[in-house]
Design brief:
Blueprint lengths: L8 H25 L3 H12 L12 H16 L7 H15 L4 H18 L16 H4 L2
Helix pairs in contact: 3-4
Length: 142
């Protein structure tokens, strides 16, 4: 930002005109960023998107969901009958653990699960049965 020195009334009027033009230009840019729901979603996701940094604000969508879902699922399943201190600790620990969860780790886990299921035979499609099991022509005439 440049600093301007205002020495007289003409300098003040020039600076006010410049600021009004800048205000109008910024208003037009804001209208473009919020003119549709997809533009609003893009603006919001750009604030939270990008590479994951543990403990920071930058994290992808899977990481943001895991920050809420992980403590909720753990407290409703494994620690269902625990007291509030244990549930609070689980919440704190799972918040830190959620920082390490991103789309890459979820994709890795899914790929490993698919490979394991394919290895033990679950998830394989059965080969199509041979539909032509008729006897050869020479044996059918006798």
């Amino acid at each position: 930002m440049t600093s301007t020195y205002i020495k007289n009334i003409d300098d003040l009027r020039t600076e006010i005109a410049r600021l009004e033009i800048a205000k109008q230009q910024q208003g037009e840019k804001l209208k473009l960023r919020f003119n549709s729901p997809s533009a609003i979603f893009g603006t919001i996701s750009s604030a939270f998107g990008g590479p994951s940094s543990v403990g920071g604000l930058k994290q992808n969508f899977v990481g943001m969901i895991s920050r809420v879902a992980l403590p909720f699922v753990l407290n409703k399943t494994l620690f269902k009958k625990s007291n509030f201190i244990v549930k609070g600790l689980v919440g704190l620990v799972s918040q830190k653990a959620a920082g390490f969860i991103d789309e890459g780790t979820v994709t890795n886990v899914v790929d490993k699960a698919k490979a394991l299921l394919a290895k033990i035979g679950i998830g394989k499609k059965n080969p199509a049965p041979d539909t032509d099991q008729r006897l050869p022509y020479s044996e059918t005439l006798s």
